Amino acid sequence: MAGMTGISRPSLGTKVVFTMAADHGVTTEGVSAYPSEVTRQMVLNFATGGAAINVLARHVGAEVRVVDMGVASDESWPSCVVNRKVAAGTRNMAKDRAMTVEEARSCLEIGAELATQAVQNGAGAIAVGDMGIGNTTAASAITSVITGRTPAEVTGRGTGIDDSRLKLKISAIEKAIETNSPDASDGIDTLSKVGGFEIGGMAGVLLGAASSRVPVFLDGFVSSSAGLIAATICPLSVDFMIASHLSAEPGHKYILEHLRLVPLLDLNMRLGEGTGAALAFSVAEAACKIVAEMATFDSAGVSGVRGED
Amino acid sequence: MAGMTGISRPSLGTKVVFTMAADHGVTTEGVSAYPSEVTRQMVLNFATGGAAINVLARHVGAEVRVVDMGVASDESWPSCVVNRKVAAGTRNMAKDRAMTVEEARSCLEIGAELATQAVQNGAGAIAVGDMGIGNTTAASAITSVITGRTPAEVTGRGTGIDDSRLKLKISAIEKAIETNSPDASDGIDTLSKVGGFEIGGMAGVLLGAASSRVPVFLDGFVSSSAGLIAATICPLSVDFMIASHLSAEPGHKYILEHLRLVPLLDLNMRLGEGTGAALAFSVAEAACKIVAEMATFDSAGVSGVRGED
Question: For an interface test with A, which of B305, B308, B309 has the most A Cβ atoms less than 10 Å from its Cβ?
């Protein structure tokens, strides 16, 4: 963190979690155990403070900013929800590209703008988290494209699907990649063909935080797939990313290997929302406090290493 | 933690770290890079709030109780240090038993009494930490005796000794075990022959916390060797132990395997004092808050898993 910030005794300052929500057209392929309306319901749950990310953010003293990047609903949100909806859910990537190139660019710009504003308002550490029924399907597709692993290797059970749905999910991802032929070296092309609005928004936050030299914490599998997109657009941005935890989703370890990041925690979490990143905030803050607050051996009058005699 | 406490929605309540200090006669064998007076100096550092455990305990909202179990000094401590000195350091275990059986019993009784008092005063989670120049030598000896591994397998570099001191350290442990023939099935015999006063005190805290049904957090290698002593005296006590982290000391993984405990954190820490346990307090508290504070799907109006159709 000293290297990221250029400050020898860094502190986290205000800690902000961006929890970004969107819907996914690919859910019509039957890839999730939950219906799409859960995305909308969970945004309301975030707004009233009842979700896991609210509990864990309170625990570590972080703020949660809930952003509608593309929820398939015309709900008028409570004022605490930031409405930056790019469109009401992506198209079904198994049949068509998920979004236009212009929409992909919009996601990145919105995320970068939100991160930059947060830094201007005092944020010294930022985390990205996600909510979106169907978004492990998009994350698995991105992971397969950019890491070169097969869909079967990187795809897991998300919210807890059974064997038959897992087969449908892998098959939908294979179709999406075959139909769209995303260019693995082009993050915007990959995002627009097999991504999601919240994934694009998180990639934008990662780029914005990196450009501000502020440490940015990946959460689990979906937010780390945004890390792949950001890394493809600007490889240097990875130097500002901290891997909070290793998700139980099988594709996550391949992303972290690809980005050469080592996760701080390994607690079999798999929820998203920014929950693992919130816990990692606390560990990183502890590290900063050790540097800032501990007495030195000199100042505490402690004897040094004895000479080799 | 629900199982330990018998409460379905447990909370940690007041969190107390017992940081127990003592000196070790085996340091005359040249097993440590630091002189024995560092134990005394670090007790004063704990008392003034400048040590790592003070910083991390503040970070997680825990109290530190510093206990002199056997520091080789007649210093009159600041009032915040609990003076329960059993003797001014152990004897050199490479030549004689480290302490008498009566002294070993005293350590256990003192630790159990302190834990029980803390629970009576509201502690809902207790951690054990250690300070004592030479105490990884005692911990390695205990680990070798109780797990059946050789001294060479379980012995590490402690505060950072070089190859020649590591040889001296392993050789001192081999001599201590050969000279004393501790009975691996008898925790009091093992403690008295190759242990330390702070290790005995921590074993007592573990037994006292378990008897009060209060979760007790092991820290690193030395405190976990106290876990081996406690487990030998009362196997059921292990059900109340939480392994906070995996220390970089090589013997620690063998202790945790023996106790069948899985560490929460793996951050290459190796300081002792209770530092890893303080961080684990925060993770455990987060888990309790998830159970206590999260909305259910019902209460938040979130749709359930869709039927298999």
Answer: B305
pLDDT, residue B309, reads: 41
Amino acid letter, residue A168 = L
Task: Please state the domain count of chain A.
Answer: 1
A73 vs chain B: nearest CA distance in angstroms? 15
Give a yes or no: residue B162 inside a domain.
yes
Other C-beta atoms lying within 10 Å of the C-beta of residue A163:
7
Mean pLDDT score across all residues of chain B: 96
pLDDT of B303 reads: 87
Question: Is a pLDDT exceeding 70 seen at residue A309?
Answer: no
- Give the pLDDT mean for B267-275: 95
Q: Which residues does A167 contact at the CB level (< 8 Å), separation at least 6?
A: none
CB–CB contact A299 B50 (8 Å): yes
State yes or no: is B103 an active-site residue: no
| Residue B207 near residue B237, CB atoms below 8 Å | yes
CATH number of the domain within which B107 lies: 3.40.50.10210
Asked if A300 lies within 8 A of B266 by C-beta distance, the reply is no
Q: Summarize pLDDT for B183-207 with one digit per residue, the tens.
A: 999 999 999 999 999 999 999 999 9
Provide the token pair at B26. Answer: 């085996």
Q: What is the pTM assigned to this prediction?
A: 0.95
Min Cα distance B155 → chain A (Å) is 20
Which of these, A126, A278, A260, A259, lies nearest to A205 by C-alpha position? A126
What percentage of chain A has pLDDT greater than the value 90?
94
Contacts of A159 in chain B (CB under 8 A): 305
Helix or strand or coil: residue B66?
strand
Proportion of chain A above pLDDT 70, given as a percent: 99
Of the candidates B273, B285, B293, B308, the residue annotated as catalytic is B273
Residue A296 lies in a domain: no
